[in-house]
Specification:
The protein has 183 residues and is an alpha+beta fold. It has 2 domains: 35 residues, Ubiquitin Ligase Nedd4, Chain: W, CATH 2.20.70.10; 137 residues, Nucleoside Triphosphate Pyrophosphohydrolase (Alpha-Beta Complex). It is 14% helix and 33% strand. The chain contains 2 helices and 11 strands; from the N terminus they run βββββββαβββαβ. The strands form 2 sheets. Strands 4, 5, 6, 7, 8, 9, 10 and 11 form an 8-stranded mixed sheet that branches. Strands 1-2-3 form a 3-stranded antiparallel sheet, with no helix packed on it. It is elongated and about 60 Å long.
Length: 183
């Protein structure tokens, strides 16, 4: 940020009084511009013993498989954002079940949150403007080498670990920059 979004004057990067980190501070009106992490809300939709995945139609990771998820919008709850993204990317209207994972990704200032979602039927879009393909996968057919993001891979593995007992736990963890390369 070079200019204040309030008055268009230049900003300085400094530690404001009473703060503990550098921020963009307007040299004219004194507005402090905070930059906070973005929330990604999504679901792990299941129908019977199958998991629904979407092949990304947009970058990053276009052409790779993912769970339906995306950035929350202003005024949404986590569940509303996850349900909206699932409708947009997979063409299904769902109700969010238990939270499966909350994964901080500090090197890109994001937090990815996924909910379990039981599909009422096997019907879904074949593709959408955000997904080249939407498909239900048997557990043994999940394309692990083509999963787009480490947060998705971890969430899928957590779900599969809890599946035999049906006791789905919420996992809260971080993914570090060097860890994402080894998943």
């Amino acid at each position: 940020m070079k200019y204040c979004s309030e008055c268009a004057h230049p900003v300085n990067i400094e530690v404001p009084e009473g703060d503990n980190r550098q921020r963009a501070v307007c040299s004219h009106c004194g507005t402090i511009h905070y930059v906070n992490p973005r929330i990604i809300a999504g679901t792990l939709p299941v129908f019977n013993d199958q998991i629904l995945l979407c092949k990304r139609a947009i970058e990053p990771r276009k052409g790779y498989w993912t769970l339906p998820a995306g950035f929350m919008e202003q005024g949404e709850t986590l569940e509303q954002g996850a349900a909206r993204e699932t409708l947009e990317e997979a063409g299904i209207d769902i109700q969010c079940g238990p939270m499966l994972s909350a994964i901080s990704v500090p090197h890109i200032s994001q937090v990815h949150i996924f909910f379990l979602a039981n599909m009422q039927s096997a019907e879904h879009a074949q593709h959408t403007s955000e997904s080249l393909e939407v498909k239900l996968f048997a557990v043994d057919d999940i394309p692990w080498e083509e999963i787009a993001f480490p947060t998705v891979k971890k969430t899928l593995k957590f779900y599969l670990k809890d599946l035999p007992s049906q006791d789905f736990q919420t996992r809260v963890l971080d993914i570090q920059i060097d860890e994402r390369l080894t998943l």
